[in-house]
Write a structure and sequence with these properties.
Blueprint lengths: L3 E7 L10 H15 L3 E7 L2 H9 L6 E5 H6 L1 H7 L4 E6 L11 H13 L2 E4 L2 H9 L8 E3 L16 E5 L8 H8 L8 E5 L6 H12 L5 E5 L3 H10 L2 E4 L8 H8 L4 E4 L4 H4 L5 E4 L4 H13 L1 H14 L6 H14 L1
Helix pairs in contact: 1-14, 2-4, 4-5, 7-8, 7-12
């Protein structure tokens, strides 16, 4: 018998101009389940009303996999349907982990997670945080870390820095640029890849900061998968200066390419870089980041060691099929 699931996600997950880690993850889950024979009824919505309609039309006893962002838009819908259908919430992040999260958003998250029969998180850190905050029972929580596709080993031998992620305060691009401003001019370059649409005021500030580097810092915007893969291949270091991060899909992609990483020691990042080829720094500290970047730029021995470690660590990079397997098991158990 063919299994089915209603997958409720934010609108635009296939829009090439709205690339985000959450959208990529949701697409991979949808496509992976379909390859395994699941009937995935994908419903995209941009508000709580759409989420309510999507859940109310799920047949009795059927499974609804709900992206956590959507779930937080309509907690009352999950509460209404929790005894009629099998709700699984896919929690990419924890709203309560953001220091400036509005109280109503935190409360909506608490209600939606409480109404779920099962919860899927994208990192062990997120699962542990949900348990510590009393938001999800560990026994009904499944960890499905982001995977990566098979990738070519990066060939970047220079000092080409790469930072990938939506241009947003929690991603910390301002921390990176403040760190770079503390370094002497040299033969380094930095490419910042990501959408500027979500936080336009912040993105404009980042663009102004980047312009001060006389072309050494490029704001590239959103790239298609093939062009982004090429950007990884030409880069010699990924920098992830996040203030909040559940796992770090850009880090996983860098690992798949065997590219070393300097990242903030926050959230699920330490787990993502386990295995070597990475340096962790204190979060929200441009000076600490500048010191490690300076050491990497000036020490050939350090660069060689990190490259060797990263090339070895890429063998243990999780694949998307592993992610889909974990989610499939959570759906079956729900």
């Amino acid at each position: 018998m063919r299994r089915g699931v209603r997958f409720v996600v934010p609108a635009g997950i296939d829009d090439p101009d709205q690339v985000s880690g959450g959208n990529v993850y949701d697409r991979e889950v949808r496509d992976g389940l379909r390859r395994r024979g699941w009937a995935v009824d994908l419903v995209e919505t941009s508000d709580g009303a759409g989420a309510t309609a999507a859940l109310s039309s799920v047949p009795d006893g059927s499974i609804a996999l709900v992206d956590g962002l959507v779930a937080d838009w309509a907690p009352e819908a999950l509460e209404t349907e929790e005894h009629r259908i099998r709700i699984v919430v896919l929690a990419h992040m924890i709203a309560a982990a953001f220091p400036d999260a509005p109280p109503d958003v935190v409360e909506a998250e608490r209600r939606s997670l409480r109404a779920a029969r099962a919860v899927v998180t994208t990192s062990r850190w997120t699962a542990d945080e949900l348990a510590a905050r009393g938001l999800a029972d560990p026994e009904r929580t499944t960890v499905a870390v982001p995977g990566a596709h098979e990738a070519t080993l990066g060939a970047g031998q220079g000092r080409n820095l790469l930072c990938v992620g939506v241009i947003a305060p929690h991603k910390g691009q301002d921390i990176l640029l403040d760190a770079l401003a503390q370094l002497p001019s040299g033969d380094w370059s930095c490419s910042i890849v990501g959408s500027a649409d979500s936080f336009p005021r912040y993105a404009r500030r980042i663009a102004r900061k980047a312009a001060r580097f006389d072309g050494r810092v490029r704001m590239i915007g959103v790239l298609d998968p093939e062009t982004l893969a090429e950007e990884y291949r030409r880069s010699s270091l990924l920098v992830a200066p996040s203030r909040v991060e559940s796992a770090g899909m850009a880090i996983t992609d860098a690992r798949a390419h065997g590219i070393p990483v300097i990242a903030a020691e926050v959230g699920g990042i330490p787990d993502t870089v386990a295995g070597g080829g990475a340096i962790l720094v204190r979060p929200d500290d441009p000076g600490a980041l500048a010191r490690q970047l300076g050491a990497w730029m000036t020490s050939p021995a350090l660069r060689d060691r990190l490259r060797r470690e990263a090339a070895l660590a890429r063998r243990a990079t999780p694949r998307w099929e592993d992610t889909v397997t974990a989610i499939e098991q959570a759906l079956v158990r729900s």
